[in-house]
Amino acid sequence: MTSKHKVDKPLLIIILILTTFGVFTFLSASLGLLAKDGAQYSSVVASQLGFGLIGGLILMYISSKIPYKFWKIYSFWFLLGAIFLTLLVFIPGIGFEFAGAKRWIHIGPVSFQPSEFLKFAYLFYVAAWLSLATAKNKIRTFKYGTLPFLIISFVAGGILALQPDNDTMAIMLLAGGVMYFVSGSNFKHILLVGVLGLIAILTIIFSRPYIMERIVTFINPASDPLTSGYQIQQSLIAIGSGGFSGRGFGQSIQKFNFLPEPIGDSIFAVISEEFGFLGATFLILMFVALLIQSVRISLMSRDSFGGLLMIGIAILIVSQSFLNIASMLAIFPLSGLPLLFVSHGGTALLFTLAASGIMLNISRFKKQ
User: Fold this and answer.
1) Tens-digit pLDDT profile for residues 7-41
2) Torsion over CA of 341, 343, 346 and 349, rounded to 10 degrees?
């Protein structure tokens, strides 16, 4: 028996909790901007709530109604369009550079990061190809299983590496790698993909000094507390001062002039300061619940495409969020990745909610 009408309620509840928690936390963290520049505060909040939240909820509703096989049928065109948009960042007058990275494009009054579209389009195409190879019993072959996966990953990952957007590239390829692994690929080919991935990671690390600086800071945050180690030092102060139950909603001190990027990649530190160990643990458990429920739905999916896409989106969202949290806790080098559902970034929130709608649609067709 197959359910074709109702979304999975536990999954929907988890997504709504993460979204609601994220909105209120963001509003609290953004008060640090209000103390500096009221105009900037209004602009940032309007972008997050208007473009990110409202636009994202509309897209989530629409994508939850679109049969998930739609993304399989048009996966190639989505990937092609995403690659085209991402390449626009390199065109003067359209793309613009910030902090040494070309990740944003301006089209009229709108600016956004096309890499957010690319990482989901990549998942669509990888899931479509792997499911096709599985259906033809060729998933374990190098020619039809491994080689296409490597080519797709090289093209999409290479574009992000050129920006450079190493963090997004790593998360995207991790999600793709998990999909490739669970699709039933040949174990020797999995090892080959793993070795090639490791070589790529080491090449990027040793070819880009700022990544090595992050690693050195991670090993010894106190080595340069006023520059490279400043963010992690202030993050740990905020997390530690939150104690068990926190200072209270809106009562963070570190978000005012101390903590870099309090609405961005440091927002978990604000959460920990205001809600303490209890609030931080609650957020982490919500992401764990999202992953567990997604895996459950994936195992009950009608076909391999739905199952693979479900796993890919869940891994993308949860791994990115956990890497953000880990970097703020000083158990992983600083990544610069936003905490999904929470951090500032209208484009990230928009596409995260849209992808959540796709997950909800897949859940409509799970087997009972």
Assistant:
1) 899 999 999 999 999 999 988 888 877 666 555 67
2) -20
Answer yes or no: is 4 within a domain: no
- Compute φ and ψ for 36, nearest 5 degrees: -100, -50
Q: Is residue 3 in a domain?
A: no
74-78, 203-207, 310-314, 328-332: least confident range: 203-207
Structure tokens at 1: 């028996």
Residue 308: both structure tokens together? 């693979």
Q: How many helices (H) and strands (E) does the chain have?
A: 15, 3
Do residues 357 and 120 lie in contact, with contact meaning Cβ atoms separated by under 8 Å? no
> In terms of Cα–Cα distance, which of 14, 304, 261, 346 is closest to 134?
304
The residue range of the domain holding 121 is 9-364
* Eight-class DSSP state of 228: T
